[in-house]
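Chain A, query sequence.
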Amino acid sequence: MSETPQDPAGTTHQFRAFANQGQPEKTGGANTGLIVGVIAAVALVAVVAAVVLMML
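Chain A, predicted structure.
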């Protein structure tokens, strides 16, 4: 078995380049996925409550 040589200097350089890129800024506004999820959960609870009330 032969191992591939690892270049620590190259890896460090790549990491520093990645770290210096920074994170992209988020745009303003609410998270759409979260809002849709909350609305779906509320609708599901309403449907379940309606079914339970109809059974009584």
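The CA atoms of residues 5 and 11 lie 12 Å apart. Residues 32-55 form the longest helix (24 residues).
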